[in-house]
Amino acid sequence: MQEVIYDYILSHRKKDGTLPKTFCLPQDETKNGPVFVDGALDGIAYFHTVMNNTPEEDDAFLTRVKTILSQVFHTEQEEELNKLGEELNTLSQDGRMLPHIDTIQQYIQRNADTLNGVALYHFASQLLTTSKDTEAVKLGLSILELFHTDQDASLKDIIRILSRCNEFTLFGGYVMRQWKHGNEDLFRTLQEVDGWGRIFGIELLEVDGGEIRAWLMAEGVHNTILPGYSAINTYEKT
């Protein structure tokens, strides 16, 4: 999309901070083929396909991300970090983030002794609010999952806002799980999404009280995709 994703989401929020039930990120009009609702491509991959069986050396998505991160690891200039972020504005052309989460996080962890952690944190954070590419936003969230973000109030607000878009609920939920009260944040988020975001979020949600259990019993299988996706999780958690 041509607009910064975070700005697009902000511009469509209602007065109460929620997104309209019909909200969906703009589709790439240059591509022919079916139109998917937010989160659908990740949902199809997660539930119906082998996540990733491409050798790392032949994986264009992984190669591109590693090339960018290897520069981020040793960069201190904000201007340079911004340029590197802009290079990811077409990342989705090379693939999707979901099947690469573990590999990319392991790559970062292997370089933990030599990388510039402050630069990486800044780079990941700015991807959330400046990127025009869905997969670059997800990359930023996946990187931040490795950091202690619970004390960064402004960043947490950004993650909450992104997570109320079905495209990012899963990735935002991964980060929320690291917060002291992250399960409460995830629960509030799931009450505001009703598509793929709700399906993914229920998988992450912990039943730590009667309110969550009651909500799951009443609403757990209700989504705009297919009740069966959440049925087993809802049953097992209630």
Question: Can you walk through the features of this model?
Answer:
The protein is mainly α and 238 residues long. Helices cover 55% and strands 0% of the residues. It has 13 helices and no strands. It has helices at residues 5-12, 40-48, 60-72, 78-86, 101-110, 117-130, 134-144, 153-163, 169-176, 182-190, 196-204, 210-219, 228-237. Helix 3 runs parallel beside helix 5 (101-110), helix 10 (182-190) packs antiparallel against helix 11 (196-204) and helix 11 runs parallel beside helix 13 (228-237). The longest helix has 14 residues, at 117-130. The model has no long low-confidence stretch (mean pLDDT 94).
Give the topology.
Blueprint: H1 5-12, H2 40-48, H3 60-72, H4 78-86, H5 101-110, H6 117-130, H7 134-144, H8 153-163, H9 169-176, H10 182-190, H11 196-204, H12 210-219, H13 228-237
Helix pairs in contact: 3-5, 4-6, 6-7, 7-9, 8-9, 9-10, 9-11, 10-11, 11-13
Please supply descriptive tags for the structure shown above:
238 residues; mainly alpha
- What's the average pLDDT? 94
Task: Identify the overall geometry.
Answer: globular
Structural class: mainly alpha
Distance between the termini: 40 Å
Poorly predicted segments: none
Number of strands: 0
Binned, the helix content reads 55-70%
Q: Tell me about the largest β-sheet.
A: none
Quick gist of this model?
The chain is about 55% helix and about 0% strand.
